[in-house]
Description:
Elements: H1 2-15, E1 21-24, H2 27-36, E2 44-47, H3 52-60, E3 65-67, H4 70-79, E4 83-85, H5 93-97, E5 101-103, H6 108-117, H7 133-146
Parallel strand pairs: 1-2, 3-4, 4-5
Amino acid sequence: DAIGRRTLIRMRAFDQISEPVVFPAHPRVRAAIARLGHVHAADVHVCEPAGYGDMIALQRNARVIATDSGGVQKEAYWLGVPCVTLRDETEWVETVANGWNVLTGADPARILSAARQAARPADRPPLCGEDDVVDKIVSVLGEGLGRR
């Protein structure tokens, strides 16, 4: 099945990284791994899906994040953690342009190379406008509410 094939390709790359890998996996993904009989490297820890707070903690403490999730790519950038995106394209092209995200597709050699070479770029410019955009929004909303 497609889930099993994609997962097996990724697991082959993860098995070669030679450092701890935490892989919170959906039950269907874990079942596909079991069905295929894949035995992962000792450093690869496949676990239950993590809740949002636990997932943020895992990401914050990671050296590099490998994902196919658009949301996780953006969280990685905000948390200052390099990202390897296991897709051929991304909706967050600015993270790639800024050097924080590498697109590898499903190629195990590219995944492995990107994960091993991942490093934090010197600069992390704001992606959502200026740094004080939230303050400006609150101010405008406050002014609008004050006119009533």
